[in-house]
C-alpha cells in the first residue's frame, strides 16, 4: 500500500538516500573520531573533508558535466545537516567549497567552468568567496576593494576580512567595485588564483567555535588578474552575490539544524548512559520531556529547511528574489534554533554541560556564528519586515 506522502509525490523530492547513506558511512568511519581534536587544536579538517571528496561527495550542487553530483538542494541541505551534526569545521569547509563553485557555475564562461569546477568538486582545489570587508559587511554594496583595467589585466586593490578557507584557497571568487560612485551597479566578480602577484592571505583568526575552519583576512596590492578572469559582465557582481546567498543561507540554516541535533544527541547519549532514558525511570520524566521538546523543535526546523530547499529546486536559482523572504525565514529560524537548543542541552546537563568531552559546549560555541555569517539574523529580520510592510502597504 502506498503512503500518503508517496501518493502526493513528496518522497520523490526527499534527499537522495544513496548519497545520505554514503555521507553517514564516511562520517562514522573517518570524521567523527577527529571532530573533538579538530576543535581543540584548531586544525584545518583536511583529512575529514578529503574523505568526503574522495568518495565523490563534495560537488553536490554542480552538474555531472562540470564534475559534480547534480544533486538537489534538498539533498545538499540534508548532507550539510549530517556533517554539521558530527563536525562543524568540516561542514564549513565543505559548504564554502560550494559557495565558491556556485558563482563560477552560474556566471562562468565554459573555459572558467572547465578550469575550476572539476577541481573544486574533487577536492583538488580549495575555494573561497570574498565579499566582506572591514567596513562593508552587511552593506556589501559599500565595498572599497577596487578593480581597474590596465592593459591586459585587471588590477585589484583592497582588503577582505573573515574569509572562510581563505588561507587554503587555490581559487577565490573576489568581489570588487569598478567605480565606487556607482554603488552596487559597479560591483564585479573576479576569479583570483593562489600565487597571483599582489595577493596574500593572513593567518587564521582565533575563534569561539568552528575552530578548525580557517577564517582569514586577504590583501590585494596591485594584484593583476588576466582579463579572462572576470566572472560575468562588469557590474553583474552584486546580483551574483545575492543569488549565491540563496544557496549559502540554506547552508547556514542546514548547519543550524545539524548543530542543534549534535547537541541534542550528545545530551541524550549522556542521559542514556546514566539510565535516565529507561522507561522505568519515572523521576527522569522532566529530562525526557525536555529532550522530546528539543527533538520536536529540530524536526520542525528540518521540515522548514527542506520545504525552502525544495522551492529553490522547483522554481530555480534565478528566481532567488521570489524566494528571498522564505530563505530569510529559514536562515533566521534554523540558526536561532541551533543556539537555543544547544544552550538548552547545556542547561539540562547541569554542571556536565560545561564539560568539553560530552560535545554539548562545542556545539553551543559552533552554533553562535551561524547567526552572524551569510547575513546576520538582524538582516534576515530586516528582509522579513520588508516583506511584511509590502504585504500591508
Ligand atoms: C566565521 C566567519 C566566517 C565568515 N566567512 C565569510 C566568507 O567566507 N566570505 C565573506 O565574504 N564573508 C564571510 N564572513 C563575514 C560575514 O558574512 C559578516 O561578518 C556578516 O555579513 C556581518 O558583517 P559585519 O561583520 O561587517 O557586521 P556589520 O555589518 O558591521 O554589522 C554589525 C552589527 O550591526 C547589525 N546591522 C548592520 N546593518 C544593519 C541594519 N541595516 N539593520 C539592523 N542591524 C544592522 C548587524 O546585524 C550586526 O549585529 C564570515 C564571518 C565569520 C564570523
Properties at a glance:
Butyryl-Coa Dehydrogenase, subunit A, domain 1, binds flavin-adenine dinucleotide, Butyryl-CoA Dehydrogenase, subunit A, domain 2, Butyryl-CoA Dehydrogenase, subunit A, domain 3, alpha+beta, 4-stranded antiparallel sheet, 393 residues, 3 domains, 8 strands, 4-stranded mixed sheet
- Largest sheet geometry: 4 strands, mixed
Q: In angstroms, what is the radius of gyration?
A: 21 Å
For the residues shown, what is the average pLDDT? 94
Could you give the distance between the termini? Answer: 49 Å
Q: Please, could you describe this protein's structure?
A:
With 393 residues, the chain is an alpha+beta fold. It folds into three domains: 4-126, Orthogonal Bundle (Butyryl-Coa Dehydrogenase, subunit A, domain 1); 128-235, Butyryl-CoA Dehydrogenase, subunit A, domain 2, CATH 2.40.110; 238-391, Butyryl-CoA Dehydrogenase, subunit A, domain 3 (Up-down Bundle), CATH 1.20.140. It is 52% helix and 13% strand. The protein is built from eleven helices and eight strands. Strands 1-4-5-8 form a four-stranded mixed sheet, covered by helices on one side. Strands 2-3-7-6 form a four-stranded antiparallel sheet, covered by helices on one side. β2 (146-150) and β3 form a beta hairpin. α8 (285-315) runs antiparallel to α9. The site of flavin-adenine dinucleotide (FAD) has 19 residues, from β1, β3 and α11.
Amino acid at each position: 500500500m502506498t503512503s500518503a506522502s508517496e501518493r502526493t509525490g513528496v518522497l520523490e523530492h526527499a534527499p537522495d538516500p544513496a548519497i545520505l547513506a554514503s555521507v553517514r558511512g564516511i562520517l562514522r568511519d573517518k570524521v567523527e573520531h577527529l571532530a573533538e581534536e579538530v576543535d581543540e587544536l584548531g586544525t584545518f579538517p583536511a583529512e575529514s573533508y578529503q574523505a568526503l571528496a574522495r568518495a565523490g561527495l563534495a560537488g553536490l550542487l554542480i552538474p555531472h558535466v562540470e564534475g559534480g553530483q547534480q544533486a538537489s538542494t534538498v539533498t545538499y541541505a540534508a548532507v550539510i545537516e549530517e556533517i554539521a551534526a558530527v563536525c562543524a569545521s568540516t561542514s564549513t569547509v565543505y559548504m564554502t567549497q560550494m559557495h565558491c563553485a556556485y558563482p563560477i557555475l552560474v556566471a562562468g564562461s565554459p573555459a572558467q567552468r572547465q578550469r575550476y569546477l572539476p577541481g573544486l568538486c574533487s577536492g583538488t582545489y580549495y575555494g573561497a568567496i570574498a565579499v566582506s570587508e572591514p567596513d562593508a559587511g552587511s552593506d556589501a554594496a559599500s565595498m572599497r576593494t577596487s578593480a581597474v583595467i590596465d592593459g591586459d589585466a585587471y588590477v585589484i586593490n583592497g582588503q577582505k576580512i573573515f574569509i572562510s578557507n581563505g588561507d587554503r584557497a587555490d581559487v577565490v571568487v573576489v568581489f570588487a567595485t569598478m567605480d565606487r560612485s556607482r554603488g552596487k551597479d559597479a560591483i564585479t566578480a573576479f576569479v583570483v588564483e593562489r600565487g597571483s602577484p599582489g595577493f596574500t592571505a593572513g593567518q587564521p583568526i582565533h575563534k569561539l567555535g568552528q575552530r578548525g575552519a580557517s577564517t582569514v583576512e586577504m590583501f590585494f596590492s596591485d594584484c593583476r588578474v588576466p582579463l579572462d578572469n572576470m566572472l560575468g559582465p562588469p557590474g553583474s557582481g552584486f546580483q551574483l552575490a545575492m543569488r549565491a546567498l540563496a544557496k549559502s543561507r540554506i547552508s547556514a540554516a542546514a548547519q543550524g539544524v545539524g548543530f542543534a541535533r549534535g547537541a541534542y544527541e550528545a545530551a541524550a547519549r549522556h542521559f542514556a548512559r546514566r539510565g535516565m532514558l529507561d522507561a522505568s525511570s519515572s523521576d527522569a520524566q522532566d529530562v525526557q520531556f525536555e529532550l522530546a521538546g528539543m527533538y520536536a523543535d529540530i524536526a520542525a526546523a528540518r521540515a522548514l529547511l527542506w520545504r525552502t530547499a525544495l522551492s529553490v529546486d522547483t522554481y530555480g536559482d534565478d528566481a532567488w528574489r521570489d524566494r528571498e523572504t522564505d530563505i530569510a525565514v529559514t536562515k533566521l529560524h534554523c540558526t536561532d534554533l541551533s543556539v537555543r537548543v544547544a544552550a538548552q542541552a547545556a542547561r539540562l546537563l547541569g554542571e556536565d554541560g560545561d564539560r568539553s568531552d560530552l560535545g554539548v559546549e562545542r556545539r553551543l560555541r559552533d552554533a553562535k556564528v551561524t547567526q552572524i555569517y551569510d547575513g546576520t539574523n538582524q538582516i534576515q529580520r530586516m528582509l522579513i519586515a520588508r516583506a511584511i510592510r509590502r504585504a500591508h502597504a
